[in-house]
Amino acid sequence: MEQAQFLTSQFLLAMPGMGDPRFEQAVIMMAAHDEDGALGIGVGSLLAGMTLRGLLKDLEIDPGEAPDVAIHHGGPVEPGRGFVLHSLDWAGQDSVQIGELCGLSGTLDVLKAIAAGKGPSQFLVALGYAGWEAGQLDEEMTRHGWQAAPASRELLFETGTGERWAESFKAQGIDPALLVGETGAA
């Protein structure tokens, strides 16, 4: 599995009041962040009515042993493009490793392996991604739109999608109920 210059095991958490409803309480698993830009996969919300077995059927892949789990809204960029964040016990064609936390695959081989019961032991499937041009994410972070947070296998694979945002703040000792969407002026 290739390991490129990736941001090591970081979530990007949307701050309240950031002003973009597409990212309200967003949790983005960062895959790349360098001088050329940034890319992440949303893991904080699900696509209504879409399941893995349905997606496999749409792709003409026999669902076989694949569980009927929901698909994550990976982000607003290329919403028809699929990605799988997965445990490191599986690697396939063009898989990349994100720190020591997980792998990222965007080819059909991972879906075929999951359907055959030979895929990763833990995984999340998402459609679309979040992307930023060079310097864009850095600038957004200075305006308090995003909070970088350590990611963990537990938060990524074992915490419910609807709880991931709040639990990621709590893991940093921050009570998300006390966060406000406005800053004051002195």
In short:
This is UPF0301 protein FHS50_000712. The chain has helices spanning 52-58, 108-115, 136-142, 153-158, 164-170; strands at 10-14, 27-34, 37-42, 46-51, 70-73, 77-86, 96-98, 102-105, 123-133, 146-150.
How would you describe what is shown here?
Helices cover 19% and strands 33% of the residues. The chain has 186 residues and is an alpha+beta fold. The protein has a domain at 10-83 and 124-176: VC0467-like (3-Layer(aba) Sandwich). The protein is globular and about 50 Å long. The N and C termini lie far apart (51 Å). Mean pLDDT is 89; it is low at 1-6.
Please write out the topology:
Blueprint lengths: L9 E5 L12 E8 L2 E6 L3 E6 H7 L11 E4 L3 E10 L9 E3 L3 E4 L2 H8 L7 E11 L2 H7 L3 E5 L2 H6 L5 H7 L16
Parallel strand pairs: 5-9
Antiparallel strand pairs: 1-2, 1-10, 2-3, 3-9, 4-5, 6-8, 6-9, 7-8
Protein name: UPF0301 protein FHS50_000712
Family: Belongs to the UPF0301 (AlgH) family.
Pfam families: DUF179 (PF02622)
Label this structure with key terms.
alpha+beta; 5 helices; disordered N terminus; 186 residues; VC0467-like
Average pLDDT metric = 89
Number of helices: 5
Counting DSSP E segments of at least 2 residues, the number of strands comes to 10
**CATH homologous superfamily of the domain at 10-83 and 124-176 - what is it?**
VC0467-like
CATH architecture assignment of the domain at 10-83 and 124-176: 3-Layer(aba) Sandwich
**CATH topology of the domain at 10-83 and 124-176, anyone?**
VC0467-like
| Sequence of secondary-structure elements | EEEEHEEEEHEHEHH
Question: What is the CATH C level class of the domain at 10-83 and 124-176, in words?
Answer: Alpha Beta
Structural class given helices, strands, pairing?
alpha+beta
Range of strand content: 25-35%
Low-confidence stretches: 1-6
Shape: globular
Q: Give the biggest sheet.
A: 10 strands, mixed
Family: Belongs to the UPF0301 (AlgH) family.
Protein name: UPF0301 protein FHS50_000712
InterPro entries: AlgH-like (IPR003774)
Pfam families: DUF179
